[in-house]
Amino acid sequence: MTAIGETPAEVGKARVRKEDARLITGQTNWTDNITLPGLAHVAFLRSPHAHARITRVDVSEARNAPGVFAAFTGQDVKDEQGSLPCAWPVSEDMILPDHPAMAVDTVRYGGEIVAAVVARDRYAAADAIELIDVDYEELEPVLDMREAIKPGAVKVHAEGNKSYTWELANGDLGAAFNDAPIVLDRVYRQQRLIPAAMEPRSVVCAPVGDEYTMWSATQVPHILRLMLAMVTGIPEQSLRVIAPDVGGGFGSKLQVTAEEVLALLLAKRLGRPVKWTESRSEGNVAVHHGRDQIQHIRLAADADGRIRGLDVDLLADMGAYLMLVTPGVPILGAFMFNAIYKMDAYRFNCTGVFTTKTPTDAYRGAGRPEATYAIEHIMDDLAAHLGVDPLEIRERNWIKHEEFPYDTIAGLTYDSGNYEAATARARELFNYEGLRKEQSERISASSPVRLGVGVSTYTEMCGLAPSRVLGSLSYGAGGWEHASVRMLATGKVEVVTGSSAHGQGHETAWSQIVADQLGVAFEDVRVLHGDTQVSPKGLDTYGSRSLTVGGTALVLACGKVREKAKAIAAHMLEVSPEDLEWTGGRWAVRGDPDQGKNLAEITLATFAAHDLPDGVEPSLDSDATYDPDNFSFPHGTHLCAVDVDTETGRVKIRSYVAVDDIGHVINPLIVDGQVHGGLAQGIAQALYEEAAYDDSGNLVTASLADYLIPSAADLPSFVTDRTETPSTGNPLGVKGVGEAGTIASTPAVVNAIIDALRPFGVTDVEMPCTPERVWRAINEAKGGAR
């Protein structure tokens, strides 16, 4: 992990993030804060209907409104707007309909853009939007995935409502299920979620001649630049994309949006800079949504609970269109339904379905939380069927630590792990036996407030990369990452990374890595990112890949810097390079450590270039591009205790313990923050959040008054800890942590609720587990309320 076996001085230290000083005081640059000379503001008119033909759009009154520069319809831009990109055609016969940035003749979800106004300020633009007159011919909405794929169903697109079917199979499933003593058959629902990043989406685009600079609150400036060029035909070298400080993303900004494409086209058309920033209500209908699956799971097991086979059938709601990675999101889950367990056979089948709802795409975890929820839920069901403890049934089936590396039934190779250690530590911190004893006492006393204990032993595939693997899955890009290290004459360091931070703390963690790799002070490292002119190479940030892929690229670049410095140091010391060793952050003569040169001395001599070895260029600057051979696989055990009031259905989380194994830790303070945030989002899915539509296809949770996001006051204090089995797939030994809390926590909470209610005959509560749903589940199990 460190340079040439050095003991780390920075890596592992809980440093306060260096970027926080500007972020938390507002002394920073975010997209909506950008003001340019002549800046105009854009507002969009969005469809109030889920499905309708557009018969007339009249913008004449809006064009004549005070302060308005222009107004446009889909007809005005249809020849230049192209189709929004989908980079993941998961099958050769996948239906990929055109996706106009602005609807031309048909709208397919409530919130789709039908017109735009450009005005002197956002208020004039918003007022003018009210003056646009649109006539619609309403069509029947398509809202239920099961109904959508039936013959004769109303079509979202002329080609049909089934976008694709994708299957993965291994082993003899028939043999696994035939004569199996235990066969469980379950249907679970993954509700639709709305990402709610702290910073709403925003975009500014400025033309200068035939070149364009776009500032966007995006996770993917490099991908956005490429896709804008492909969609609009503007040469890539004429586009510069900048992601300034971005306030969260969680996948919602892993996108090429209609608003970004239209901002570019409007700036080009008008020859002036334009800005658009969404309102929160606008974002709820227009930001891509997450999850939304119907999961049909069958599990076959021996009489002792050993898993024989797993059969998974998914219906995945694509929404109205396929966005950047929409069809691939459920496919990522295909490799995780088997989780940490051994089995003889496995089949995964997914059908992507079009509906007249906001498109779905990646949301924190992207396919892996859905898979983990299903397998962890049915593992609890298996334990209940056998009358054994949920932890015991898992231990009977999980991969033992001595079996790593392990080839899974889904075709991946897990390089390292120790599920026993993480579970033992979680069990200790949680007081597992004490809580089970209290649970039994409450049952015996017929207490109206029941105690439930929930278990989630998860793993995930992180470091979304290997390019060859992504290629085999028909993904449209690679998974490599790039880093550059620039040595300044004063011995300070500039790091340029292709990873694009939006809250992860890259500037701090990258500085810690470089400090150890080059023997420089943490404060002497500056990290540059998010600007395609400053950082021309990169594949950005998502899928917990920044550290495992981008961090490794940085380590490799630092290694090249040291090797360049070695030749120059040897010349300065008048010894052979083979006589030097890297020690104490400097190149020193082996056996005589007093004779040596640190990097600052070598850098200054390189800058002066007065006496360099023949053939050596006067630069230590180095680049590296890294493409891993495998994913990384963090894992952990999360335990949750809940009190469930059986008279009201109210659920209160009493305690929550998360023990994660993420390999080596660069900065424990950052890790704790990532875990806490992930837990909040996973718990929110379990208890609070749901994007709900009425029978007409209207989103009824279109504002935060209706879409419930928990605050800190709604969440418990978390107990977090870690075990450590380093990844063998990268020199840092890291695995990734950004999605761990979200993946593990949802099943832990729901399993706890069901554990509390099993004595009443309850085996499932559809998420979110609101008091009403919990109360109804209890009473329906008793034969009461319906």
- Number of strand segments: 28
Strand content: 15-25%
Structural class: alpha+beta
Instruction: Please state the CA-atom Rg, rounded to the nearest Å.
Output: 28 Å
Helical proportion, percent range:
25-40%
Walkthrough of the structure:
The chain is an alpha+beta fold and 786 residues long. It contains 21 helices and 28 strands. Helix 11 crosses helix 12 (390-397). The longest helix has 28 residues, at 546-573. It starts with 19 loop residues before the first helix and ends in a 5-residue tail after the last helix. The model has no long low-confidence stretch (mean pLDDT 96).
Short description:
With 786 residues, this protein is an alpha+beta fold. It is 28% helix and 24% strand.
Task: Walk me through the topology.
Layout: H1 20-23, E1 40-46, E2 52-58, H2 60-63, E3 68-73, H3 74-77, E4 106-107, E5 113-119, H4 122-129, E6 133-138, H5 145-148, E7 162-170, H6 173-177, E8 182-193, E9 202-208, E10 211-216, H7 221-232, E11 239-242, H8 258-270, E12 274-277, H9 280-286, E13 290-301, E14 307-319, H10 329-333, E15 345-354, H11 368-386, H12 390-397, E16 406-407, E17 413-414, H13 419-430, H14 432-444, E18 449-459, H15 467-472, E19 481-487, E20 493-497, H16 506-518, E21 525-528, H17 546-573, E22 580-583, E23 586-589, E24 592-598, H18 599-608, E25 622-626, E26 635-645, E27 651-661, H19 668-687, E28 718-723, H20 740-757, H21 771-781
Parallel strand pairs: 1-12, 10-11, 14-15, 20-21, 27-28
Antiparallel strand pairs: 1-5, 2-4, 2-6, 3-5, 7-15, 8-13, 9-10, 9-12, 13-14, 16-17, 18-26, 19-20, 19-25, 22-23, 23-24, 26-27
